[in-house]
Automatic annotation (TrEMBL), chain A:
It is found in: Cell membrane. The lineage of its organism: Bacteria, Pseudomonadati, Bacteroidota, Sphingobacteriia, Sphingobacteriales. Pfam families: Ni_hydr_CYTB (PF01292). Residues 8-211 form the Cytochrome b561 bacterial/Ni-hydrogenase domain. Keywords: Cell membrane, Membrane, Transmembrane, Transmembrane helix. This is Thiosulfate reductase. InterPro entries: Cyt_b561_bac/Ni-Hgenase (IPR011577), Di-haem_cyt_TM (IPR016174), Hydrogenase_cytochrome (IPR051542). Gene3D superfamilies: Transmembrane di-heme cytochromes, Chain C. It is a multi-pass membrane protein. The keyword 4Fe-4S does not apply. The chain crosses the membrane at residues 12-36, 71-91, 137-157, 177-198.
Automatic annotation (TrEMBL), chain B:
The chain crosses the membrane at residues 21-39. Gene3D superfamilies: Oxidoreductase, molybdopterin-binding domain (3.90.420.10). Pfam families: Oxidored_molyb. InterPro entries: OxRdtase_Mopterin-bd_dom, OxRdtase_Mopterin-bd_sf. It comes from the Bacteria. Residues 102-246 form the Oxidoreductase molybdopterin-binding domain. Keywords: Membrane, Transmembrane, Transmembrane helix. This is Molybdopterin-dependent oxidoreductase.
Length: 220, 257
C-alpha cells in the first residue's frame, strides 16, 4: 500500500528555492565589493595561513575591478533577499511550521547522536522526525544568520543614519567583518547541506521539490 | 497486476504521478525563468554609454533606494566625533583626479555661481575669515576602508549664511567641479547642509597638502569619500542632478552613509 505523506508546504519550498539563487547573487556581488578592500586573513602570530582571497580565486571567478557593478547588484537584490526571508519567517510563525524547526532541550543531545552516526562512529540511528536535532539547530541558526546579515549590512550601508546599530555591532569595521564571516558561514552551511542532501538520497531531495513523500507499508 | 499500463494505475499511483509531473514541470520552469531573467537583466542597456554605468533597471532601484534613504536622512544624525589623538598622522590618499594639472596658486578662486553670469569669486583668505570648524571623524572610502582623520575649514552652512546664499539652498543639489573640469560631483542639499560638511583648508592643523586638494576641498562625512572633492574650482546650485564622475561609471549617485 502506498500512501502520500505531506512533507514540505508549497510556501516553504518556494522560499527555499527563491533564496538559493538570490543568496548566490548576494554572495557573488558581495565578493565584487570585498575585492576592493580585501584585508581579511587567518593568521597565527605573523604567519598568514590563509588570505581571503588568493589571486587565483579572484581571477578564476572574474571578480576584479567590478566594485560599482557589485554594489549595484548588492543594493538591488538585498530587497529580494530581505523580503523573501521576512516572508519565510512570517509564514513559519503563522502556520505553526516553527514547531518542527525551533530546537528544544533534546535537540542538542540528538544533534550529537546525528553527528556520531553520520561520521560512522555510532550505529544507533537517531529518532527521525520531520527534522532531526542537528537539522533543527542548523535551520534555525541559518535564519538568525540571515537576520545578522541584514543588520550588519544595514550598519555598513548607512553607518551614520543607523549609528546606534553600528555601535552595537562594535563599529563600522567590526560590522563589516561580521558581515563577511556570516557569508563564509553560508558557504560552509551550503557544503554540509549539499553533502547531507546527497547522502539522504533522491527521495528526500524530491520531496523538497514535490512537497510530499511516499510511504509504502508492507500490508497488502 | 504485473502490467502497469496507464489505465491500470491505481488511483494513488495516478495521484502520485500527477503531482510529481506538476512539481517537476513547475521546478524546471522556475529554473529556466530564473536563468532567463538573469541573462535578460545582465544584457539590459547601460544608463551611461560613454563612461560605463549600470544596467538601467538596476539604476532605477538605486534611485528608489535614494528616495527611501534620503527620506529617513536626518541632519541631526552626526558622524561620531573623535578626539584629536585618535586621528591618523599619515592620512590615506586615494585618487588624484582633477589634480593632474599644475595649480595656478595666485589666481585660484572659489567660483560660486549664483546665477547665469553672476559668479562670486572668493580667495582662500576670504574663506579663512569665516568661523573655523574642525571635524575629526571616521572617513569612509567606497572601497571599504575607513580612517579617523582630522580636518578643518568653514562649515558649508556657515559659508552659505555669510555670503547670503540662503535662497539658493532651496534648490535640490550642489555641484562641485575641479578647476580643470576633470572631476565633478553632485550632492543633495540636505547632506551638504549637514553641520559637519566643511569647505576644508586644513588637515591635521596644517594647510592642506597639494595632493589632498590644496587650497580648498570638500569634506562631507555623511557621504563616501568619492564625494569629498579635492581642489574645488566651481560651486553651483541646481534643481537637477549635476554631473557626477563616479555616477557615470556605475556608482550610486547618492552614496550616502
Amino acid at each position: 500500500m502506498k500512501k502520500i505523506v505531506e512533507k514540505h508546504p508549497f510556501a516553504i519550498r518556494w522560499f527555499h528555492w527563491v533564496n538559493f539563487p538570490i543568496l548566490t547573487i548576494m554572495i557573488w556581488s558581495g565578493l565584487l565589493i570585498y575585492w576592493a578592500n580585501d584585508l581579511y586573513h587567518i593568521s597565527v602570530g605573523s604567519v598568514t595561513l590563509f588570505h581571503f582571497f588568493p589571486e587565483w580565486f579572484y581571477q578564476s571567478l572574474n571578480l576584479e575591478q567590478r566594485l560599482a557593478e557589485g554594489m549595484a547588484f548588492h543594493f538591488v537584490f538585498m530587497w529580494v533577499f530581505f523580503i523573501n526571508g521576512f516572508l519565510y519567517v512570517l509564514y513559519t510563525w503563522i502556520s505553526g511550521e516553527w514547531r518542527y524547526l525551533i530546537p528544544n532541550k533534546h535537540s542538542f543531545k540528538e544533534a550529537w547522536l546525528v553527528l556520531l552516526h553520520d561520521l560512522h562512529l555510532s550505529k544507533t540511528i537517531p529518532p527521525q522526525m520531520k527534522y532531526n536535532g542537528a537539522q533543527k539547530i542548523a535551520y534555525s541558526a541559518i535564519i538568525i544568520m540571515g537576520l545578522g546579515s541584514v543588520l550588519t549590512g544595514l550598519a555598513i550601508y548607512k553607518p551614520i543614519q543607523f549609528q546606534t546599530l553600528c555601535n552595537l555591532l562594535g563599529g563600522y569595521q567590526s560590522a563589516r567583518l561580521i558581515h563577511f564571516m556570516l557569508t563564509i558561514g553560508y558557504c560552509l552551511f551550503f557544503l554540509i547541506h549539499i553533502a547531507q542532501v546527497i547522502r539522504a538520497g533522491w527521495r528526500n531531495f524530491r520531496s523538497m521539490v514535490t512537497g510530499f513523500d511516499i510511504l509504502t507499508s508492507k500490508k497488502k | 497486476m504485473g502490467n502497469t499500463k496507464k489505465q491500470n494505475l491505481s488511483p494513488i499511483d495516478r495521484k502520485i504521478r500527477w503531482r510529481n509531473w506538476l512539481s517537476l514541470t513547475g521546478f524546471t520552469l522556475f529554473i529556466f525563468a530564473a536563468i532567463f531573467f538573469w541573462l535578460k537583466l545582465k544584457n539590459q542597456p547601460l544608463d551611461n554609454d560613454i563612461a560605463g554605468g549600470v544596467q538601467i533597471p538596476l539604476r532605477k532601484v538605486l534611485n528608489a533606494n535614494e528616495k527611501v534613504f534620503s527620506k529617513t536622512f536626518s541632519k541631526q544624525n552626526l558622524a561620531k566625533a573623535y578626539p584629536k589623538s585618535a586621528a591618523a598622522k599619515v592620512v590615506r590618499l586615494n585618487g588624484a583626479l582633477g589634480l593632474m594639472t599644475d595649480l595656478d596658486d595666485k589666481n585660484w578662486r572659489l567660483n560660486v555661481v549664483r546665477a547665469k553670469g553672476d559668479t562670486l569669486k572668493l580667495t582662500l583668505a576670504d574663506l579663512q575669515k569665516l568661523p573655523k570648524t574642525q571635524v575629526i571623524f571616521n572617513f569612509k572610502c567606497i572601497e571599504g576602508w575607513s580612517q579617523i582623520s582630522d580636518w578643518a575649514g568653514v562649515r558649508f552652512s556657515d559659508f552659505i549664511k555669510a555670503y547670503h546664499l540662503d535662497k539658493l539652498t532651496d534648490k535640490k543639489y550642489i555641484g562641485l567641479v575641479t578647476p580643470d573640469g576633470e572631476y565633478y560631483v553632485g550632492i543633495d542639499m540636505d547632506s551638504a547642509m549637514q553641520p559637519q560638511t566643511i569647505l576644508c583648508y586644513e588637515m591635521n592643523g596644517k594647510p592642506l597638502p597639494l595632493n589632498q586638494g590644496y587650497p580648498l576641498r570638500l569634506i562631507i562625512p555623511v557621504k563616501y569619500g568619492i564625494k569629498s572633492l579635492k581642489r574645488i574650482g566651481v560651486l553651483s546650485f541646481s534643481e537637477e542632478r549635476p554631473p557626477d564622475y563616479w555616477f557615470e561609471r556605475g556608482y550610486d549617485y547618492y552614496a550616502g552613509l
